[in-house]
Amino acid sequence: MPVGPAVAGTGHETVSARAKLALVKRLARGDATDHGDLLGSLRCLKCGQCAEVCARGLDLVASWEDLEAQVDGQIDDPD
């Protein structure tokens, strides 16, 4: 299965589309979230490669922008 450059570059599944969509669901339910998951959700190049390989044809870049707006300010990232 093809992966986006963030996963390929970091080797961490937390930056994958699947992991970020799962995070969206957890946030919507009000479930506790891991700091690493929140941080991983902010690691996106907005290149659109995830949308190109998405079997469901989702507009993932727009979803990531919405997710980033939701978690912005919830974590302290020195990077």
Comma- or semicolon-separated keywords:
single chain; 79 residues; mainly alpha; globular
Describe the structure.
By secondary structure, the chain is mainly alpha-helical. 54% of the residues lie in helices and 0% in strands. It is built from five helices and no strands. It has helices at 5-10, 17-29, 35-41, 49-53, 60-71.
Count of discrete alpha- or pi-helical segments spanning 4 or more residues: 5
Shape: globular
Total DSSP E strands = 0
**From the helix content, strand content and strand pairing, which structural class follows?**
mainly alpha
- Residue ranges: pLDDT <50 for 5 or more in a row? none
Span from first to last CA?
Answer: 29 Å
Rg: 12 Å
Map the helices and strands.
Layout: H1 5-10, H2 17-29, H3 35-41, H4 49-53, H5 60-71
Short structural summary:
With 79 residues, the protein is mostly helical.
